């Protein structure tokens, strides 16, 4: 849908002139960011787009992919192009909550008096990579997820704020399950997106071999700073959303619930649990961010469709029947979208 042909937003939801100019700046900045990342990252266009959407929507993401797909390089490069502090936490079975959040340390002030001072943990960064989060025990996972949700940590009764922008990217290895502690569905729901990182194409793999086996990797130029990221996050929240888009998002989520009267009959033997209201919130926020990044002045149905899979894939819990028949969450979501779009 063209910008001029978009439906009228709800009353009082129109963009101001400054916001229109800001959207144009965000679109241009996003293209500059992608061009800068292309110096070190080959392909992964969809992953980069979903990471950017999640960041500007103030959400956290979970990356699923086998080792060796440059997940860590992508996240660290993203932080570099945004002049943001970056921290990588390698989750292991012996990792303790204090290893993430920090702890109180007894210090001598030089006069013979001692007092406790807080030493910050690696979670105090703008972009945090929680590598192989499913390798840490539940108590450590809970500490990380609490920091994500509350955007602060509490040590010895004192709260310490995590300075914005704050963005957590967690990774899971789908092929190695021995010695892991899979995240429960209720904790997976804290992540806005589950982003699938797939193998590169043949041409991309040739390009990777050429660019990574020669000289030093190029240095990346910063495109954004923290204050600009925060300003663009505020802009995303002001993006107009027509009423029919809210209805589309709600109807899509409701159809994922097998006990709902809105669910189609074919879904009931395949899905044990559907998505909750948080999925609707993330669909709208993700669509707002995508619309702004692509230079649209209003959220469109195609924006909802584009973010539906990463929002819903970890919230649609399949039954044993679906597993045995090889039915994926992606296939379920795609069919729901096709059927709902045909009815609109």
Keywords:
alpha/beta, 5-stranded parallel β-sheet, 13 helices, 344 residues, two-stranded antiparallel ribbon, Rossmann fold, single chain
Summed over residues and divided by their number, the pLDDT gives a mean of 86
Q: What profile does the largest beta sheet have?
A: 5 strands, parallel
Number of structural domains: 1
Order of helices and strands: HHEHEHEEEHEEEHEHHHEHHEHH
Gyration radius, in Å = 22 Å
CATH superfamily: P-loop containing nucleotide triphosphate hydrolases
Q: Estimate the helix proportion, in percent.
A: 40-55%
CATH architecture: 3-Layer(aba) Sandwich
- Which CATH first-tier class would you pick? Alpha Beta
Number of strands: 11
Q: What proportion of the residues form beta strands (DSSP E)?
A: 5-15%
> Could you list the spans in which at least 5 consecutive residues all have pLDDT below 50?
1-6
Strand order of the largest sheet: 2-5-8-1-9
Question: What's the tally of helices?
Answer: 13
- Indicate the structural class: alpha/beta
Measured between the Cα atoms of the first and last residue, the distance is 15 Å
What would the principal axes of the Cα set say about the shape?
A: globular
């Amino acid at each position: 849908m063209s910008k001029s042909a978009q439906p009228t937003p709800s009353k009082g939801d129109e963009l101001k002139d400054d916001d229109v100019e800001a959207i144009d700046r965000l679109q241009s900045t996003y293209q500059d960011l992608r061009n800068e990342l292309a110096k070190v990252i080959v392909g992964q266009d969809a992953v980069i787009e979903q990471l950017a959407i999640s960041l500007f929507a103030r959400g956290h993401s979970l990356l699923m992919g086998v080792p060796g797909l440059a997940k860590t390089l992508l996240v660290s490069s993203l932080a570099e192009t945004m002049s943001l502090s970056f921290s990588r936490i390698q989750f292991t079975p012996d990792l303790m909550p204090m290893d993430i959040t920090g702890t109180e340390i007894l210090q001598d002030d030089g006069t013979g008096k001692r007092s406790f001072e807080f030493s910050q943990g690696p979670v105090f960064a703008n972009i945090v990579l929680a590598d192989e989060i499913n390798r840490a025990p539940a108590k450590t996972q809970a500490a990380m997820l609490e920091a994500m949700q509350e955007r602060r940590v509490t040590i010895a009764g004192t709260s310490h704020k995590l300075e914005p922008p704050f963005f957590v990217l967690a990774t899971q290895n789908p092929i190695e399950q021995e010695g892991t502690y899979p995240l429960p569905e209720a904790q997976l729901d804290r992540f806005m997106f589950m982003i699938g990182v797939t193998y590169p194409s043949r041409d991309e793999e040739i390009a990777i071999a050429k660019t990574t086996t020669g000289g030093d990797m190029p240095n990346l130029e910063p495109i954004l700073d923290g204050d600009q990221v925060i300003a663009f996050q505020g802009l995303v929240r002001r993006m107009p959303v027509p009423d029919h888009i809210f209805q589309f998002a709600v109807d899509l989520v409701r159809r994922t619930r097998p006990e709902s009267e809105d669910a189609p009959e074919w879904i009931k033997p395949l899905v044990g649990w559907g998505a909750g209201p948080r999925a609707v919130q993330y669909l709208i926020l993700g669509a707002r961010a995508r619309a702004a990044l692509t230079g649209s002045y209003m959220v469109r149905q195609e924006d909802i469709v584009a973010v539906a899979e990463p929002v819903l894939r970890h919230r649609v819990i399949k039954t044993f029947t679906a597993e045995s028949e090889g039915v994926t969450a992606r296939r379920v979501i795609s069919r729901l979208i096709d059927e709902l779009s045909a009815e609109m």
